[in-house]
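Sanity check. The docking grid for (6S)-5,6,7,8-tetrahydrofolate depends on where the pocket ends up, so I'm generating a full predicted complex first rather than guessing from homology. Inputs follow.
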Amino acid sequence: MHSTNMSDIKLAMARRLRSTPYTSRIEKQGLTSYTIYNRMKLPAGFKDSLIDSYYHLKRDVQAWCVSAERQVKIEGQDAFQLVQLMTCRDLSNSKDKRCYYAPLIDSQARLINDPVILRISKNEFWLSIADSDVLLWAKGLAIGKNYKVTVSEPDINILAIQGAKSLLLMEKVFGKKITELKFFGFDYFEFNGVKHLIARSGWSKQSKYGYEIYCKGNEGLELYDHFFDIGKEYNIKPGCPHLIERIESGLLSYGNDFDDSNNPLEVDLFHKFINLDTEVEFLGKDKLKKIKAEGVSQKLMGIKINHDQINVSDAIEITINSKRVGELRSGCFSPTFSKVIGTAMINKPFFETGTQVEIVIDNEIKTGVLCNLPFV
Ligand code: THG
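Predicted complex below; grid placement will be based on this.
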């Protein structure tokens, strides 16, 4: 029997691993890998190396197909109530045309998802979800609570413009008005007679934040081609959410850094989105109060490791004097720190900044030190 080299294993494609309108373009532009996210193809790499695309994102501009960030649309007179039931972030002062990053939790305060929530109007919200089943969860809650809402997944395919020159490119296409869009605000902008919802947001912190264009069906294709026609002067390239840039920036990934075995208090970056001291009611509130009173038993930390390469496809044990104290959940080589950096779920009482730990990479024991997130 021959054993197989991991890098030779291919993911078999099928219709149920949904395509996006942009895949027709991207597959001709040097795409080398997909990952699967919400049962949809999400581009994960192009011909340029990870390091080359990192510098490209920091200097120039990229177009990303992030259609796999599916929308769960909640509409109707009880829309607000249903959305608020699902998140520990108090949305009672939320405003139309604003986005809200919000942890969703269940009755045991376990993390269900961490969507960007768009408030379209008082009676219509879109949950732009990470990789877990929110559609059925929302439908089930609506039935159980007898809410007057419709819950659906509209065919919206986000095209993101990210990177240092994203603002310049967007201004060239949509005019000066787009430069007035504030962080996590959205508005409607026209291109060739088609109105698109565009938000100042995205999973990259270059140029503070880039832009996300929520395109209906294949209405984004003309725009996609136009970006590549007129984006040459900004050296536009196709790209995708970038492993290194997102770890350096402290942008978290559901299923990697945390999942439904975690509660949001275990993640410091979520603390500002947990409102336990207001009147608002949501699933898991009592449980969260209890966890807060008792203190968490583990915490997501940053880690810096003295090594120059890593590939994290599963959690890697972290030890102190050979005793397990937690696990590495995401990691990469960071050009900024000239070290491996990553996120690690660390048990109490070891989750302190400055704690020295060990980790086995490439069959060798490496040393690391814990730190707070984000890195930059
Ligand atoms: N954009 C949209 N939908 C998404 C993502 C996205 N859905 C899936 C996934 N990404 C959800 N996860 C995140 C994680 C972090 C952020 C957004 C979505 C983010 N966080 C900022 C931060 O941490 O600084 C902003 C937080 C804040 O409100 O202050 O942007 O990328 N459409």
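Relevant for the grid: The chain has three domains: 13-69+155-247, 71-152, 248-371.
Also worth noting: Residues 135-145 form the longest helix (11 residues).
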